[in-house]
Amino acid sequence: MYLTRALHRSLQQQADEIVTIFRGRRRSYREFCARVARLASALQALGMRPNDRVGILAQNSDRYLEFAMAAWWGGGVLNPVNVRWSVPEVVYSLDDCDTGILVVDDQFLPMAEGIRTAVRREPVLIHAGDGDGDAPAGMLSYERLIDEASPVPDAQRGGDDLAIVMYTGGTTGFPKGVMQTHSSLWCGTLQRMADTPPLKGGRVLHTNPFFHIAAIARVLMQFIAGETHVILPSFEAREVLETIERERITELGMVPTTIQMLIHHPDFARFDLGSVRRLGYGASPISAAVLEQAMEKLPGVEFAHSYGMTESMIVTTNPPGNHGSAARAQGLHLSAGCAGIGIEVKIADAEGNEVPRGTVGEILVRSGGVMPGYWNRPEDTARALRDGWLHTGDGAYMNEQGYIFIVDRIKDMIVSGGENVYSAEVENVIGRHPAVAVSAVIGVPHEKWGEAVHAVVVLKACAQATEDEIREHCRAHIAGYKCPKSVEFRQALPLSGAGKILKRDLRAPHWEGKARAVN
């Protein structure tokens, strides 16, 4: 199976149907596929060979989807760069997987020169802008490349061939490149579709960033189902409401934070949202209050939840039936659902042995949708994939009916606004501040973002630093969402007998009285 196969089916059966809508620009499958074939040709002419990595640093747009499909059509591997990263983080990911071509849109044009001068191997830079002028100096024009290229046949790389490298936070302080193949992405997508079938004639609104696995999953589902992608550059509540009404959106894919922002927008009730038939949510746990409010404000809308991660697009699903009144009375709407079709899940102890039902352990998953490993990180891969099982690092229990309830996070990770933040990465940066002796970074409850990054810092003897200084130091090195929202100074950190920082002790006061230790 190869990911571009979905395009061939739609081109055969519905060539003149609309595939993308962006800022009033509409393209049919016929137009979209023609542009993909020409862009693939241009990428090959620029040096892209089979299995070469090509990147994109851009907000959501129709061009983003064209570039992803063109990379695969031409035989390449997509590196979707996190748009919230700083220049050093972007450079690290480009260097790590040797990305030779990078598309940059207008929003990130100011970062291009900093990237160019810092990378080990200078990539070919392509400017994907909406202006009528030529590309900036040292860059090629996206539209001109398409206009001047002749289409090439689909390379049809598929199966176990690498399709994408997606960077996620690193437990050792550096991001890890999660590898997914054509087969693993196909498998994960079909597993998701089997549990929550696409809505016929669907118009799905994209607001989640395309560099994220949740958005990639939804994009692939829509291409396979032949649906219409309605795309916004990013989430802005009023624009979402306006777009739902104007484009008659049938399905939304959101994270709990954006659901909360949408339903609490002061103009929410003024818009006609009657076209919406389903709201799919995930990426982080949702609070009972937000879910109940959303269901109350969107009566008649199906709610469906899926739990997955970059390493495994889909693990469990919680379908619309579990959001009805009877299921809510059993608390099933607050579960992560059951193992998806074709997916094995177990709750295990530290040795990988399954624990009794109702006992908290680590979620382990085994399926064709699990990654083959991390890019050039055999030791991390060996830790994550053991005896055929992916160790997720999430703590949960399973009830007698197979429903999974996530209660804690075993791996040292914070989920803020649907984005993963690894404590070690933040601690690594804080430790470079000249006044800091040691630090510990934890997640604390936050009403808007679910969890917020909180740093507990011990200063060196006679040294001084303020909370603002620590935050400013972090902002110079890592993305804003990873920077501490709050900083606490202590004389010492709690340690175990082995000298390990007891983060659970640091977290406990913040999570006291809550049913679970994650949001």
UniProtKB/TrEMBL annotation:
Domain AMP-binding enzyme C-terminal, chain residue ranges per copy: 425-500
Domain AMP-dependent synthetase/ligase, residue spans: 8-375
Annotated signal peptide: none
Keyword Isomerase among record annotations: no
UniProtKB keywords: Ligase
InterPro entries documented for this protein: AMP-bd_C, AMP-bd_C_sf, AMP-binding_CS, AMP-dep_synth/lig_dom, ANL_N_sf, ATP-dep_AMP-bd_enzyme
Example GO molecular function: acid-thiol ligase activity
Top-level taxon in the UniProt lineage: Bacteria
Entry-linked PROSITE patterns: AMP_BINDING (PS00455)
PANTHER family assigned to the protein according to its UniProt record, in alphabetical order: LONG-CHAIN-FATTY-ACID--COA LIGASE, NONRIBOSOMAL PEPTIDE SYNTHASE PES1 (EUROFUNG)-RELATED
Protein family per UniProt: Belongs to the ATP-dependent AMP-binding enzyme family.
Record protein name field: Long-chain-fatty-acid--CoA ligase
Organism from which the protein derives: Cupriavidus oxalaticus
